[in-house]
C-alpha cells in the first residue's frame, strides 16, 4: 500500500489519540475533528485489507481500492484539523497521576516520539492466521479468500475449494455454494458427520477427506489447485478459508485492556461495551479489533459511534472542570 503524507506529533496534550488508521480509526477521528476536538491518528500503514484489489459491500464506495479509500479518509480528517501521523506504537499507558479524574495517556512511537492524550481510541484491526499449508499464503487476498460478501461476486462461477479449519467452515461452504455450482469441501481431518454430509450432497457439494499436502501454483503464477497427501492434484481456481483472527495488540500491554476468546478457538478480540467503551476508563475500541466480522462499512460506523461517545464524555469532563474552576475562583 502506498505511503502517505505524515505530519509531526503535536506538543502538549491532545483530546484524543486514535491508534490505527483504517476505516474505524479514520471515521472516529473524523467525528472528533468535526466536533473541534484535537485528534491525532497514529497509522502504521498495514491495514488488514491491503492485499485486496477493492472494497466491496459498502454502498457508494463499492469497488474502491483500499489505498484510495484510506487516502480520501486521511484527507477528510486533515480538512477538519485532525492530524494523521505515520508510525508504529510501541507503548501506550496511563500517565500518572491523572488530572482530577480526567485521565491522561502517553503514547510512544518507534524512534522515541511521544504524545499525550486525554482519551484513546484503539482501532488497530486484526491479523488473519492462515492454516499452515505450503503454497497457501502466496495467494492470500487474490485467489485465497475468507469472506463471501467481500470477495464472493468476484469469484462467482469459479471452481472453488473450501479448506476446512473447524465447525465454522461448514457454514462457509454453504455461503460459497451460493456463488458457484462447482464446490469441493476439503475436510482436512476436521470431521464431518453424516447429517452434514447429507446436506452437502443435497447441495451438490463434493467432499474430499484425504489430507491436503499443499496448494499448487501454475506456471503462470495462478492458483492451480490442491495437492493431496498421495500427490493427486484437485484442480481449483479459488480457495476459501475461515482464518483465525487475532486483535493487534502490539504496544498496548500497558493499557491492560480486557480481551476475550472467540467461539470455536477462532481467535481473540478486545472486549468492549456500548459504543466501544472498555473497562479501562478513557479507552475505547472500534472496528475489527473488537468485531472481527465487521466489514469496512460496519467498522467505519463503529468508529463514528465511538468518536461521538468520546466527544460527549469529553464535553461532560470539560463542563465539570469549568464548574470546579468557577467555584474555586
Automatic annotation (TrEMBL):
<dbReference type="InterPro" id="IPR036188">
    <property type="entry name" value="FAD/NAD-bd_sf"/>
</dbReference>
<keyword id="KW-0560">Oxidoreductase</keyword>
<dbReference type="InterPro" id="IPR050097">
    <property type="entry name" value="Ferredoxin-NADP_redctase_2"/>
</dbReference>
<dbReference type="Pfam" id="PF07992">
    <property type="entry name" value="Pyr_redox_2"/>
</dbReference>
<dbReference type="InterPro" id="IPR023753">
    <property type="entry name" value="FAD/NAD-binding_dom"/>
</dbReference>
<keyword id="KW-0285">Flavoprotein</keyword>
<protein>
    <submittedName>
        <fullName>NAD(P)/FAD-dependent oxidoreductase</fullName>
    </submittedName>
</protein>
<feature type="domain" description="FAD/NAD(P)-binding">
    <location>
        <begin position="15"/>
        <end position="303"/>
    </location>
</feature>
Amino acid at each position: 500500500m502506498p505511503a502517505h503524507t505524515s505530519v509531526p506529533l503535536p506538543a502538549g496534550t491532545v483530546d484524543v489519540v486514535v491508534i490505527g488508521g483504517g476505516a474505524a480509526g479514520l471515521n472516529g477521528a473524523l467525528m472528533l475533528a468535526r466536533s473541534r476536538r484535537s485528534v491525532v491518528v497514529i497509522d502504521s500503514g498495514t491495514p488488514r485489507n491491503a492485499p485486496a484489489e477493492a472494497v466491496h459491500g459498502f454502498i457508494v464506495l463499492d469497488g474502491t481500492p483500499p489505498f484510495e479509500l484510506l487516502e480520501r479518509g486521511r484527507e477528510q480528517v486533515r480538512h477538519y484539523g485532525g492530524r494523521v501521523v505515520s508510525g508504529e506504537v510501541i507503548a501506550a499507558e496511563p500517565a500518572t497521576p491523572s488530572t482530577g479524574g480526567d485521565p491522561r495517556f502517553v503514547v510512544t512511537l518507534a524512534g522515541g516520539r511521544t504524545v499525550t492524550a486525554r482519551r484513546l481510541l484503539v482501532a488497530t484491526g486484526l491479523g488473519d492466521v492462515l492454516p499452515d499449508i505450503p503454497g497457501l499464503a502466496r495467494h492470500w487476498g487474490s485467489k485465497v479468500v475468507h469472506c463471501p460478501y467481500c470477495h464472493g461476486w468476484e469469484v462467482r462461477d469459479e471452481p472453488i475449494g473450501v479448506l476446512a479449519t473447524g465447525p465454522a467452515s461448514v457454514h462457509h461452504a454453504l455461503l460459497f455454494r451460493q456463488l458457484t455450482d462447482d464446490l469441493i469441501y476439503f475436510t482436512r481431518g476436521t470431521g464431518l458427520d453424516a447429517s452434514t454430509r447429507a446436506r452437502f450432497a443435497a447441495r451438490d457439494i463434493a467432499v474430499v477427506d484425504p489430507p491436503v499436502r499443499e496448494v499448487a501454483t501454475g506456471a503462470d503464477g495462478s492458483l492451480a489447485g490442491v495437492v493431496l497427501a498421495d500427490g493427486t492434484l484437485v484442480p481449483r481456481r479459488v480457495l476459501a478459508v475461515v482464518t483465525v483472527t487475532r486483535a493487534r495488540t502490539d504496544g498496548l500491554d500497558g493499557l491492560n485492556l480486557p480481551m476475550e476468546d472467540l467461539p470455536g478457538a477462532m481467535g481473540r478480540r478486545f472486549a468492549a461495551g456500548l459504543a466501544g467503551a472498555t473497562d479501562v476508563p478513557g479507552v475505547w475500541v472500534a472496528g475489527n479489533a473488537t468485531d472481527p466480522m465487521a466489514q469496512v462499512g460496519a467498522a467505519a460506523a463503529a468508529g463514528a459511534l465511538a468518536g461521538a461517545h468520546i466527544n460527549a464524555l469529553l464535553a461532560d469532563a470539560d463542563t465539570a472542570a469549568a464548574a470546579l474552576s468557577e467555584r474555586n475562583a
